[in-house]
């Protein structure tokens, strides 16, 4: 990523940062950006039980983002990066390419003359500004002509049943020609109301919940994957049986050959389906088939694709954390993390999902009861995704540097696997 005007050397403390991300969708819905959620220290802000999507940060956090690489975290889409007043006045944002980021001015910033001057400089250099958590106070009026995007937190209004009270505010902002973003949207009903009021962009947990994914019973392709995964985990099933199962579904046979042709298997030549199965191995093939299953769901829509990506990242993150901790079976943790989103992806109760898959009792206990040896890593992954840093620290103290590295690796790995497994 290009670096403008500033020579950057990440400080020694740069690794002490939590970094996660949350997608932003337009009305289509199409993912247009990720907001990066980060915090440089446990003391930097109170923890997010209410989960505002912004977190105070110090210079360390911005340097860490740069050293990790925005593109690695956002797959080349725009990144909303939180900026404090000190960052703005000190031009620290210049470490980022103006085409790669939206500078999100935290709600603590007012439209003082110094801030207005700094915003004008940033705009002149090509940066786009967003106002976070806009509440309509008069001290922000000088910033409205300078901002392109204004974020409005709708959660307090949805909790009190006063969401429609935001309609005049949205109309006023749009009258300035601003793009208005509704953040912390939690249900499909709230999303519909926000759209009706004229909001342009949307962010929140609604995009990881079943009602937005039009859940329905598994289609023929998905049912075939369930069947083959079950067969792969049954020792009495012969190679001939597996070959016949693949033969019935030409698209799965084609995908099997694509798996063998992937870089992880060296692009080797095969002369039969059974040869491909032996080459990949049953355990690895079972994992690939489950990834293919979630990938097929992701082809439905941009929202479904993002939910699939979240599932893969969670699975890989659970596996990587477990491997780092020396857990005896990281692959089981991958399965727990991935399957924990399958009820959302398939629109089926978790009990029905697990009826179709040959999983161990420990996996079932983690997914259905939040108990057993795998429950802790699932709690950790969920807390990390929600940017509940206090809970992350509580689960595994002192692991900020490692978690950020593993999360970033999980995002990259998942993007690669999703691209390889997607139906063609």
Explain what the structure shows.
There is one protein chain. The protein is an alpha/beta fold and about 425 residues long. The protein has 2 domains: about 10-210, EAL domain (TIM Barrel), CATH 3.20.20.450; about 220-420, Hypothetical protein af1432. About 50% of the residues lie in helices and about 10% in strands. It contains 20 helices and 8 strands. It has an 8-stranded mixed beta sheet. Strand 7 (about 180-185), helix 7 (about 190-195) and strand 8 (about 200-205) form a beta-alpha-beta unit. Helix 8 (about 220-230) runs antiparallel to helix 9 (about 240-245) and helix 12 crosses helix 20. The radius of gyration is 23 Å and the shape is elongated. The two termini are about 30 Å apart. Mean pLDDT is about 80; it is low at about 1-15, about 40-60 and about 210-220.
Number of H- or I-type helical stretches: 20
Task: List SSEs in N-to-C order.
Answer: EEHHEHEHEEHHEHEHHHHHHHHHHHHH
Gross morphology? elongated
Q: What's the gyration radius in Å? A: 23 Å
Q: Summarize model confidence as the mean pLDDT.
A: 79
Q: What is the helical fraction, as a range of percent? A: 40-55%
Tell me the name of the CATH homologous superfamily of the largest domain: Hypothetical protein af1432
Name the CATH class of the largest domain.
Answer: Mainly Alpha
What does the main sheet amount to?
A: 8 strands, mixed
What is the CATH topology classification name of the largest domain? Hypothetical protein af1432
* Range of strand content: 5-15%
How many discrete domains?
A: 2
Distance between the termini: 30 Å
Low-confidence stretches: 1-15, 40-58, 210-218
Structural class: alpha/beta
Number of strands: 8
Which strand order does the major sheet show?
Answer: 1-2-3-4-5-6-7-8
CATH architectural designation of the largest domain: Orthogonal Bundle
